[in-house]
């Protein structure tokens, strides 16, 4: 297996600033754009091809697959790259009221990135659709120049078929739809990500004594399922680098498989979760729903109107569920 430091790291993706400045930054998300596998090559090609022309895009992928990195890449290659890139977590937009209703104005001549749009309840999905339609009119009148990118952890086509997501809103945001591949299906790119993390650690001045990651450690990581994707990879590799630098000894200069105890602990937790899921002692759906309703009502300080809006149900339905819970 090739030494990790010999693996090329595309400078336009990982290190857009000076090499040292990029190496010490804390943004792990660009790891998802590294590698030579077919999936990431296709992703980079899609972003490059679509960026100059898109008005709205939808990014679908698991947590940690680099949805924000892909969104920032689209923005940086678009005609509005010099404008703002405005993050808009759907749950914050939902709970903050008027403060977040003006985010589209804040993204004027830039890009608005709506994170986890599937978490908006139906009433707020309607509000979002109205604002996007208003933006359409402003763009046609040439009074606005704003790109909108939405991301989702879930397949919105499935949610629309079950009535959990508005079909008209899905149609509005999915003109361009990009799906991000999880790390477990991109293990051929794991070494490039490890190389980037190692270089960042070395250039930070904290770990110059670590020269490479040994083959047994790479093989061990290749066998892991990575449910947290590139975010989890960053956590595991950084912990291993710290452990290797601290312990030294016979393996000085290298990250060895024994420097990955956290990986075994994570797999034990995954296995425990699978065993729990397979257990016959499963809660009734009615009990789960009732507990969720009571929890939402508590977070709304007893405001039933607000709780019904957040849950995406009518007040009469909320009252019936509360009556059943009492």
Automatic annotation (TrEMBL):
UniProt keyword annotations, A-Z: ATP-binding, Nucleotide-binding, Transcription, Transcription regulation
Pfam families: AAA_lid_14, HTH_8, Sigma54_activ_2
Coiled coil: none
GO biological process: regulation of DNA-templated transcription
UniProt xrefs under PANTHER family: TRANSCRIPTIONAL REGULATORY PROTEIN (PTHR32071)
CDD domains: AAA
Domain Sigma-54 factor interaction intervals: 33-242
UniProt name for this protein: Regulatory protein, Fis family
Molecular-function GO term, any one: sequence-specific DNA binding
Cited PROSITE patterns: SIGMA54_INTERACT_4
